[in-house]
Amino acid sequence: MNRWPLKKPLFWDQGASGADNDRPHFDFRRIWKRAVVLMLCVALLPLLALAWFDYRVTGQYSENEIVLRTDRLVSNTKRTVAFFLEERQAALQFVVREYGFADLNDDRRLAGILANLSGSIGGFTDLGLFNAAGRQIRYIGPYALKDRDYRDEPWFREVVAAGSHVSDVYLGFREEPHMVIAVKREKEDGSFFVLRATLNTVWFNEQLAHIRESSFGDSFLVNLEGVIQTPTLNHGEVLDRFPLAIPPYAEDTRVVTVQDRQGRELVMGYAYIPGSPFILLAIGEKAELLRPWISTRVMVVLFLAGAVLLIVLVTLGVATNLVGDIYRADRERATALREAARANKLASLGRLAAGVAHEINNPLAIINEKAGLLADLLTRAGKEPPPKEKLLSQLESIHRAVARCSGITRRLLGFARPGEIKLEQVELAEVVREVLEFHGKEAAHRNIIVGVEIDSELPALSSDRNKLQQVFLNLVGNAFAAMEDGGHLYITGSRPDPEHLLITVTDDGCGIAEADLKKVFEPFFSTKSKEEGTGLGLFVTYGLVRELQGRIRVESMAGAGTRFFITLPLRSKENAETGEEHHADFTG
Amino acid sequence: MAEKILLIDDEAEFVETLAARMRSRQMEVSTATSAAEALQREDVDSYDAIVLDLQMPGMDGLAALEEIKKRNPQLQVILLTGKATVEKGVQAMKMGAMDLLEKPADIEELTRKIKEAGDRKMVLVTAASEKQVKEIIGSKAW
User: What is the dihedral of CA A207, A212, A218, A222, to 10 degrees?
Assistant: First the structure.
């Protein structure tokens, strides 16, 4: 599995385990994951929320915009159509009022009126005069309709009943779709006459085509029965039945969403044109109308995807670099610590060597003198050979001194073996005694009183003798360094619970200032001068105790003394720590 | 002339053996296993040389040296140490030690130093007496 486009970062497989100084202190993979998740959340959530919000708002806005536009178009067209019809109706009313029947019952006169109407307001195809019996007694126009009987035509009955009438589109005698406006005038003799004009439907078509040109789909007129009155783009021919349901009557313009037979969503704006049998319809396919917004939406989504991709890439890059930097810094820290611990070990060895030289020099001096004395006895005593017992007692002294030397070297070997945890049964009292032997001379020279109070009932520890010795060497060494001549050192051992041993190391030395107390286990912290301490003693001690799965803490009061508490498990687990070499420090 | 010397060292076995060897070299040897014990002796002034261990429990070598020099600057002190450092050596010399030898020391060298110390003390004592004599003569104002 290669999840890394370029290269797997170094830290990826460096988990944190254990508390070893040399191990990474962090779980880099987890830090990386957390950084990525956090940064992605912070960057992406607002962006996505904003995008979603914007999507919702603009979507809503677009739909509203369509409704508003439809409403506006339909309302305007409705007004125009209504005005057109009213205007012509009013013109005919004017004509029948201005002129009597006698005036109108004259072809020349009627033709003049038609010419005047066409010249002034336009829109007329022909003009006809009807008597009360429904006969067209005068006709000016392109069709041969004179003397036709209209008695049974629906428009004639309407105009007789209502006084004026606007018809819907029908075929009539001329067998062509047309519409008429008719007005009735009472005569003085009680009968009446009717003036009728045919309207030029081309004008309607132009008006409605205007709506189509404004990229709104289809628009046309239907009559109250749902018969198509003007040409449509794709809803049927003139005088066909409109395929969808006729919307219910409303005084003003309405915009509704309907579905056609194919299930497509249509936006339908409609208006009943007052004083006429017409309903103005404007129908657009919703998807088509929303196209500008959809294309904007695609742009937004593409932009969003790009932004998300960019953010993800930048986040991954930044997190990887950041954690990489931490990783490198941690590695450098570990390396520096290792180097320092090594230097500290060498310095400790140097100090130890000086101490050992002194320890060994004393018995060597004795051997030297004894050997010299033997030589003296054998060479200087004169003729008498020296008594055998005297020689033997000198040799005995030499043996004792040699035994003293080898005791010292044996102890040294015991302490100089660093490395892996090796569990064995360790008597706490024995370890403490061994360590104190190292300081026996110094304690005697400086009149330091050392008290050991270890419960004789304590069971043997399953622990690493060598590391335990190093712990006590460091603590006792520190205590000796802290105490004035004549100080007191107490070491106690007890068993607070069945699983653990508690060891305290108490001195009445200079103590640790409260401000420093928190830092004593940190590396390179030292209150000693440069020559004396490396500042790693307690740090190393801390590491050792941790390796032994124990805990160490310290209580101290400046000027009064210091007490270290070490809790160790009676049974250490062997696999708890890997074999990372630990660093012996003999004085801290 | 037999030198009269005092050996001070906390290692009793060492000090006794060394004393035995010194005696066999015709020296008059006394021993002490601590500085305090040595300083209690009433005849401290009479020794030609004091051989002193630097590191001892209680009063250590340098403190003893200081005390001895305070009592009698003419006393010659040879320090003998198992753990010699340059600093300690310089300090001891400044405080008036005649020499500092490292353990285990060569007996012949130690003997030579002791003889040298005896000579030196002799010179100092003689010089002091002469000075005294001259002072006495001078004060008479002949």
Answer: 0
Within 8 A by CB and 6+ apart from A471, the residues are A541, A544, A545, A548, A566
B107 and chain A in contact, CB less than 8 A: yes
Rounded to two decimals, the ipTM of the complex is 0.80
Q: How far apart are CA A224 and CA A207, in angstroms?
A: 20
List the beta bridge partners of residue A490: A451, A506
Which domains are assigned to chain B?
A: 4-140 (3.40.50.2300)
Check whether A527 has a pLDDT greater than 70: no
| Domains of chain A and any CATH numbers | 419-588 (3.30.565.10)
Q: Which pair of structure tokens corresponds to residue B2?
A: 């037999």
> Which of the four pLDDT bands, split at 50, 70 and 90, describes residue A478?
confident
Tell me the pTM.
0.48
Contact yes or no for A173/A148 (Cβ under 8 A): yes
Which residue carries 């190391």 as its tokens? A505
Kindly report, residue by residue over A220-267, the tens digit of the pLDDT.
889 998 999 888 888 888 888 988 888 999 999 999 989 888 888 889
pLDDT tens for B89-98 read 889 999 989 9
Is there a contact between A368 and B104 if contact means CB atoms under 8 Å apart?
yes
Look at the block and give the residue holding tokens 């996505």: A48
DSSP string, A530-579: TTT--S-HHHHHHHHHHHTT-EEEEEEETTTEEEEEEEEESB--GGGS--
**Chain A contact set for B24 (CB, 8 A):** 373, 376, 380
Q: Strand B49-53 to strand A423-426: parallel, antiparallel, or no bridges (unpaired)?
A: unpaired
